[in-house]
């Protein structure tokens, strides 16, 4: 491959034209092809079928086409290709009009961006903001990514009287997810207090025909951008979910897509395939059972949001009770992490001397514009690189496994490349362990359980209203008996405790 040079050890790769490197350290043995070659080729074949449009999500009977987002030519149908290209154009056109003041709220130019979402609908956007948003971005971003009212009120208080200059982007694939719906209701209450209308400053990113899509259309929101059923939430950052906020912040979205497409191209080959090598390293580190956690240590502040972003990509994809054959396997790969060198002063102590139940995935960045600003910043950059090299050496001396991904610098292209590299590695690793990396039955089960407990709360409130008692005047046992739900005593105790504080 042009621009690719492979160093002495086969575990080390460097792609000069891309500014990307991978060193799997001593995790992948030199004879890995003899042990894993057949499974590796089968994994690459499975991803080839996926990109060609094979049904991958057995739970929902849908295809998984996030790879098409960065190269629409891969789409199995012309209509899908046109839809992706059209959405990308619409994102760029709308964002440019907002930045230039051509789209306003009653003549007031937008200066703030409020992103409402949960999980994959916002994690990628937070990564883009931290890594790529320029100083003095056209719109200052804020995030409502939980249903905690205190957090929401604090964010809205920070916006304050600039709420009339705030563009509100609501991302929800189904349009009925409780967390963003709750956040939207809170936002509406603040808008009403200032005499402002939601529709004049809101955009929706959702599937066509969803409750959110219908509402946006009926109320005349500023714009509606599509999500498709074949894009999983955790892989949606390179759709309008992440691209629209990125474009509004002045980030080069086409660069993000080009970088992701470049990593995908590398990930389809056999020789010098970094995604394959990364998946092999994870497999060997955890003995194919996730026996070691993956600690992500990016050595730049700009990548501080990469660890939580990657946590969802990996753990929601690989954490499965059943394999594809229906066998109980309880698979997964635990992910946690924070920045270097910050963690040299916290949990690196345990990594070196404590439990041997992890491997470290360093992310090294060789250069940033700030490095050469003056002698002081140059010295700080040298110390940061020294801390990375020293920590890696200290862990290796203690027999602790590590691997390193290297970027020349953090740019839209390199960040898109980094995201796509790990996405593809997750898909390959899922094939290694025979789990479906594209469904999430555990997440759906959690949502159903939450709905059941909210229904229980409503039943308890109804009973108390009928008998004329306040929450503190009835025991959980009595309410459970009255509702005919003796198994719910413990949950009712917690609900009554909650209701007492809110009565």
Write the topology of this structure.
Layout: E1 4-6, E2 12-15, E3 20-23, H1 32-51, E4 55-57, E5 62-63, H2 66-70, H3 78-99, E6 112-116, H4 123-132, E7 140-144, H5 149-159, E8 166-171, H6 178-193, E9 202-207, H7 211-219, E10 223-227, H8 240-248, H9 253-266, H10 274-285, E11 293-298, H11 306-318, E12 320-322, E13 328-331, E14 335-337, H12 348-353, E15 358-365, H13 375-397, E16 402-407, H14 412-432, H15 441-467, H16 476-483, H17 489-502
Parallel strand pairs: 6-7, 6-8, 8-9, 9-10, 11-14, 11-15, 15-16
Antiparallel strand pairs: 1-2, 2-3, 3-16, 4-5, 12-13
Helix pairs in contact: 1-14, 3-8, 4-8, 5-6, 9-14, 10-14, 11-14, 15-16, 15-17, 16-17
Describe, in plain words, how this protein is organized in 3D.
With 503 residues, this protein is α/β, with parallel strands linked by helices. It folds into three domains: 4-61 and 256-439, Glucose-6-phosphate isomerase like protein, domain 1 (Rossmann fold, 3-Layer(aba) Sandwich); 66-251, Glucose-6-phosphate isomerase like protein, domain 1 (Rossmann fold, 3-Layer(aba) Sandwich), CATH 3.40.50.10490; 442-502. Helix content is 48%, strand content 15%. The chain is built from 17 helices and 16 strands. The chain has helices at 32-51, 66-70, 78-99, 123-132, 149-159, 178-193, 211-219, 240-248, 253-266, 274-285, 306-318, 348-353, 375-397, 412-432, 441-467, 476-483, 489-502; strands at 4-6, 12-15, 20-23, 55-57, 62-63, 112-116, 140-144, 166-171, 202-207, 223-227, 293-298, 320-322, 328-331, 335-337, 358-365, 402-407. A seven-stranded mixed sheet has the order 1-2-3-16-15-11-14, sandwiched between helices. The model is unreliable at 1-10 (pLDDT under 50).
């Amino acid at each position: 491959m042009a621009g690719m040079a492979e160093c002495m050890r086969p575990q080390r790769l460097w792609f000069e034209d891309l500014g990307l490197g991978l060193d799997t350290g001593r995790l992948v043995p030199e004879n890995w092809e003899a042990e894993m070659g057949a499974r590796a080729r089968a994994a690459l074949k499975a991803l080839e079928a996926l990109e060609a449009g094979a049904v991958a999500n057995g739970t929902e009977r849908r295809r998984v086409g996030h790879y098409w987002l960065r190269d629409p030519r891969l789409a199995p149908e012309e209509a899908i290709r046109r839809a992706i290209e059209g959405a990308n154009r619409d994102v760029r056109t709308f964002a440019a009009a907002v930045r230039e003041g051509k789209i306003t709220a009653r003549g007031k130019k937008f200066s703030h961006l409020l992103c409402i979402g949960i999980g994959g609908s916002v994690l990628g956007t937070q990564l883009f903001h931290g890594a790529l948003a320029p100083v003095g971005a056209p719109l200052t971003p804020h995030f409502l990514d939980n249903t905690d009212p205190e957090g929401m009120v604090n964010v809205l208080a920070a916006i304050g009287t600039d709420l009339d200059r705030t563009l509100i982007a609501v991302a929800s694939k189904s349009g009925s997810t409780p967390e963003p719906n709750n956040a939207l209701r809170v936002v509406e209450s603040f808008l009403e207090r200032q005499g402002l209308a939601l529709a004049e400053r809101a955009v929706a990113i959702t599937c066509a025909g969803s409750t959110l899509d219908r509402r946006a259309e009926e109320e005349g929101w500023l714009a509606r951008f599509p999500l498709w059923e074949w894009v999983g939430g955790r892989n949606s950052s390179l759709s309008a979910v992440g691209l629209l906020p990125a474009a509004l912040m002045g980030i080069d979205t086409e660069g993000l897509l080009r970088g992701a497409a470049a990593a995908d191209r590398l990930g389809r080959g056999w020789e010098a395939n970094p995604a394959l090598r990364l998946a092999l390293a994870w497999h060997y580190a955890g003995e194919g059972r996730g026996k070691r956690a993956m600690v992500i240590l990016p050595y730049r502040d700009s990548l501080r949001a990469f660890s939580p972003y990657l946590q969802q990509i990996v753990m929601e994809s690989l954490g499965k009770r059943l394999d594809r054959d229906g066998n109980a396997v309880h698979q997964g790969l635990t992910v946690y992490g924070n920045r270097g060198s910050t963690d040299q002063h916290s949990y690196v102590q345990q990594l070196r001397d404590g439990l041997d139940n992890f491997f470290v995935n360093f992310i090294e960045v060789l250069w940033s514009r700030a490095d050469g600003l003056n002698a002081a910043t140059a010295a700080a950059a040298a110390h940061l690189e020294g801390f990375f090299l020293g920590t890696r050496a200290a862990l290796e001396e203690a027999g602790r496994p590590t691997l390193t991904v290297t970027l020349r610098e953090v740019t839209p292209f390199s960040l898109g490349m980094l995201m796509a590299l790990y996405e593809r590695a997750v898909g390959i690793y899922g094939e290694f362990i025979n789990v479906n990396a594209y469904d999430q039955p555990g997440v759906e089960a959690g949502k159903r359980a939450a709905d059941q407990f909210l229904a229980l709360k409503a039943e308890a409130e109804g009973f108390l209203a009928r008998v004329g008692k306040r929450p503190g005047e009835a025991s959980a046992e009595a309410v459970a008996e009255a509702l005919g739900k003796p198994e719910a005593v413990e949950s009712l105790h917690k609900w009554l405790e909650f209701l007492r504080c809110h009565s």
